[in-house]
Amino acid sequence: MKNLKLSTLVMVLVVVLSSCNQFIQLVETESVGKDAVTKEGVCQNDDIRIDYDMWSEDGITYFSLYNKTDKPMYIDWKRSVFIYNDWKNDYWVEKSTTESYVVPSGTGSNITYERKTSTVVAERYTFVPPHTYVSVPMTYVIMSGFTTSTSTSNSGKTTITVAQGLKYEDKTLKKTSIPASSGKGTVKAYVKEYSKETSPARFRNFLTYSFDEKFVTEKFIQNEFYVNRKTEMTKKNFDGPYKKANLAVKVGSVKTKNKVRIYQSPYRAGTSWYNTIIK
Fold first, then answer.
1. In the prediction, which pLDDT does 10 show?
2. Pairing mode, strands 202-210 and 73-84
3. How far is residue 71's CA from residue 221's CA, in Å, rounded to a whole number?
């Protein structure tokens, strides 16, 4: 019965939220630190290039690595971490998983297939050949746009409060004018800027690498970011202008055609992300 009540409450909450107006909160970051500063989502030194792409709902820590040298490179994920507001989060966890695969046997018309399983250990070290890209083995959500709280009253009822948006964060904040994404005039939006000290999110990407497989000598590269601006605008302005296109889908023998909108997404950037705001 309790599970039924909770499911009903969640369904009601979803219906209520879907009936409200949607705004988008654009979250931008600034790169700081002693190592090479990230420019347009790219950070590099003489050995390595790091391409960031955090663009998603709530942001993710996705990045790729490129070995710029003529020598093989090795990444030690156990000694590489994502640090969020000074808290360490590991990229590598010592664990194993069981995977299944199909093995063929025999030849010609006598060939048969047998399903087997094997234990796979998570990769601690990644071998990167010269002039080659590799991707990170794990990602983290950077900052959720939702703040939720749950409490139980004396009558046993559960209350869920969804509080988000810049106006909730700062009651004194007033709307300001920003350039319209259509390129014509301005639109109203909430804008709040932060310093490194006042930022709600500071995070670092710390990587350990070597050109020696045994890591007798090792090198480090560290990229540091902080949220320096939030801009809360209408979804229409966030999406930007669009073009209509025909989308053809075939499922079995059934074909369907639908018209879709392809938005320009003018605010997209490798070191920015967004949150959906319900009002």
1. 43
2. antiparallel
3. 18
Pair of tokens at residue 279: 């009002």
Q: How far apart are CA 203 and CA 239, in angstroms?
A: 27
In the predicted structure, residue 225 carries a pLDDT above the cut 70 = yes
User: Residue 76 and residue 212: Cα distance in Å, rounded?
Assistant: 11
Q: Give the chain's domain count.
A: 1
Tokens of 133: 């890209």
Q: How far from the centroid of its chain's Cα atoms is residue 267's Cα?
A: 15
- 26 near 238, Cβ under 8 Å? yes
The angle formed by the CA atoms of residues 141, 145 and 146, to the nearest 5 degrees, is 110
- The whole-angstrom separation of Cα 185 and Cα 90 is 46
What pTM was estimated for this model as a whole?
Answer: 0.75
Spell 142-158 as b/e; 16+ CB within 10 A means b: beebeeeeeeeeeeeee
Q: What residues make up the domain containing 216?
A: 2-278
Give the Cα separation of 3 and 192 in Å (integer). 40
What are φ and ψ of residue 83, in 5° steps? -115, 115
Share of the chain above pLDDT 90, in %: 46
The Cα 96–Cα 122 span in angstroms is 6
